[in-house]
Amino acid sequence: xxxxxxxxxxxxxxxxxxxxxxxxxxxxxxxxxxxxxxxxxxxxxxxxxxxxxxxxxxxxxxxxxxxxxxxxxxxxxxxxxxxxxxxxxxxxxxxxxxxxxxxxxxxxxxxxxxxxxxxxxxxxxxxxxxxxxxxxxxxxxxxxxxxxxxxxxxxxxxxxxxxxxxxxxxxxxxxxxxxxxxxxxxxxxxxxxxxxxxxxxxxxxxxxxxxxxxxxxxxxxxxxxxxxxxxxxxxxxxxxxxxxxxxxxxxxxxxxxxxxxxxxxxxxxxxx
Length: 272
Known about the structure:
The chain is mostly helical.
């Protein structure tokens, strides 16, 4: 969900952190790269091992906290309490073995340190660092309003980036020297993937997946439809495409939740 320029800056920052923190370890074959496995069974080259991803996420978190010092709302603030309450439900859903297996999330050997912080800033935005540290700008709160389903939409989308190791994948892409057009395509695919994973995550957490459609319609109004660059020059999906996809995924997510509640979902196999 992050703005284009900001997100590229984070990727470059993470790449620098990996280079400083390791001696080439980030270029060793990763298990998911060797097997060609990623969300949806797609091939997913990664630039960090599980240990590196955790270390980089922690260091990036410290850097962000230093940069936003004085603008982070205190832990007792109602909005901070609210985001942490909603996130706690999403974290429990993310631990459901059947969900992990269905999406093919690679979680073996990974450690997530989930935490939300709210930053006083007019940006209509939120982002999640590797390993689960998340930041929400107060500028997005008027769009969310008092609807926890809308808040769950935002948090689940950002959590999905961490669960799918998208930052690690972007680092691998940056190291590969691929052209800007291909990089933009991969970025759009990651955003769509986070939407897809997120809507199932929020449904399994007990939130209404149809509200994801309504939220992105509100976001389109709040941001003016992001008029300007055509989709093929953007690193985010076109709003119409995003909303259309969510309209298809939301009923499937609701059906998955209903099947899970009925006990109609087969036990997950032990993760290899």
